[in-house]
């Protein structure tokens, strides 16, 4: 066994990228000469990405055979890997048993395997960065004037994704007892929710935490925008940074809803404008303007919102304010993916968006609240109450969400209902607390929902 040392070249290039061939053979050789006393496969696997870190395709093939044997608790020596490659029909493609023996002869020591694996991964990460830059240049050459903004957003999203290097465990893999004392100390203080809704009972039941994704779903005209915009305002009023991605409503409509909610001016009058806005309305609006102008509330009216853009906005606000924001998306089925393809079905698109939003929430510690549409299931059901299975386009939303709030109001189906003016917030999924139904008062003429026990004159 020989140990590669200072002779490992800084890099090699054939026009397709950079790599260290000797680092790759050193890692594979260590795995091919593993002993029961030390397992370099596990150490290398903790560093290397699931696929694509190997510059040479035959190295990737050998590595996959090693992983397959290791996963079955089999030895990863040359004879076993040779048999595995023969079984899969890949032995001749990698150069036969002779090539395996040559790689084994270039092994580093077992304790060095992780270090050389880091070198392999580092070069792979550099290649991905170079490839992203090439794609960016190609897109820039092909993009028309009207598509410049979308092209920049897509390229920025790709670079942001590369910047989050997810190889290794980054301290997330540890013995249970290592973090136990620190956790016990954290229990001595009451944990503050990362975001608030402004609705007392909902705040007590939901307790939104960093990394949570909450879905607010309902049929049209049930108040999805009213409740999520109200949550954004309440959260911003508490001093927490907040951003709203409004895909369904433009700047004018959102601004009118905020003014209506905060100043208690009829939304219909603000929409109509002109003489419809009375002197009394202006007197109600004026005192609210200083507070509204000072709120840590950002609005994004970009029509083509992707998970990459959401990640970019979050990181921008973290740099600007030093706080992780609450993110509201209205609504999730209108979002696009970061994939540059139009061949995705609605199911595939919404599923990918849902998974990416969950990853973004966990990466950044943000709370993300998504409005979502329901299908027509409730309208064909006795009582008209919605269920989680009514979520439109993708069941992935249900799997990824930490909490799901379903909106229901009887007076939408029966104007003479004795519960006119009441909305039920059905907390159908709640990882942080109980599932329950919370009743609030809807005041859609002011575009807001309020606690049942609060007077109309009270404002947060």
TrEMBL record:
The keyword Kinase does not apply. Keywords: ATP-binding, DNA replication, DNA-binding, Helicase, Hydrolase, Isomerase, Nucleotide-binding, Plasmid. Signal peptide: none annotated. It catalyses: ATP + H2O = ADP + phosphate + H(+). PROSITE patterns: SF4_HELICASE (PS51199). It comes from the Bacteria. Its EC number is 5.6.2.3. Residues 188-458 form the SF4 helicase domain. Belongs to the helicase family. DnaB subfamily. This is DNA 5'-3' helicase. It comes from Streptomyces goshikiensis.
């Amino acid at each position: 066994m020989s140990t590669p040392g200072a002779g490992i070249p800084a890099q090699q290039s054939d026009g397709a990228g950079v790599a260290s061939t000797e680092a790759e053979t050193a890692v594979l050789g260590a795995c091919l000469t593993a002993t029961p006393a030390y397992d370099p496969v596990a150490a290398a696997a903790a560093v290397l990405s699931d696929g694509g870190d190997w510059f040479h395709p035959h190295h990737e093939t050998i590595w996959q055979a090693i992983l397959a044997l290791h996963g079955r608790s089999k030895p990863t020596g040359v004879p076993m890997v040779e048999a595995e490659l023969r079984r899969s029909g890949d032995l001749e493609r990698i150069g036969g048993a002779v090539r395996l023996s040559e790689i084994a002869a270039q092994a580093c020591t077992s304790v060095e395997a992780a270090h050389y694996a880091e070198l392999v991964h580092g070069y792979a990460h550099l290649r991905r960065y170079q490839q992203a830059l090439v794609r960016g240049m190609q897109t820039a050459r092909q993009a028309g004037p009207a598509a410049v903004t979308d092209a920049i957003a897509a390229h920025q999203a790709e670079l942001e994704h590369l910047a989050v290097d997810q190889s290794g465990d980054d301290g997330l893999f540890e013995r249970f007892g290592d973090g136990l004392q620190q956790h016990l100390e954290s229990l001595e203080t009451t944990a503050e929710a990362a975001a608030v809704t402004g609705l007392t009972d909902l705040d007590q039941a939901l307790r939104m935490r960093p990394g949570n994704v909450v879905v607010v779903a309902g049929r049209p005209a049930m108040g999805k925008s009213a409740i999520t915009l109200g949550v954004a305002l309440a959260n911003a009023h508490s001093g927490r940074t907040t951003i709203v991605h409004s895909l369904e409503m433009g700047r004018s409509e959102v601004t009118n809803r905020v003014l209506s909610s905060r100043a208690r001016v009829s939304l219909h009058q603000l929409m109509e404008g002109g003489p419809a806005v009375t002197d009394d309305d202006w007197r109600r609006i004026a005192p609210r303007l200083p507070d509204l102008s000072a709120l840590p509330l950002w609005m994004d009216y970009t029509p083509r919102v992707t998970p990459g853009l959401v990640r970019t906005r979050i990181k921008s606000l973290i740099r600007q304010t030093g706080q992780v924001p609450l993110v509201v998306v209205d609504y999730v089925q209108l979002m696009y993916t970061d994939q540059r393809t139009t061949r995705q079905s609605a199911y595939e698109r919404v599923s990918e968006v849902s998974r990416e939003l969950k990853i973004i929430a966990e990466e950044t510690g943000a709370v993300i609240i998504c409005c979502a549409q329901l299908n027509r299931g409730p309208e064909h059901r006795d009582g008209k109450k919605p269920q989680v299975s009514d979520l439109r386009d993708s069941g992935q939303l249900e799997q990824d969400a930490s909490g799901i709030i379903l909106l229901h109001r009887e007076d939408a189906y029966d104007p003479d209902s004795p519960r006119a003016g009441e909305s039920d917030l059905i907390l159908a999924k709640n990882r942080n607390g109980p599932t329950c139904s919370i009743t609030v008062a809807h005041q859609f003429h002011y575009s807001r929902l309020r606690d049942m026990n609060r007077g109309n004159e009270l404002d947060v």
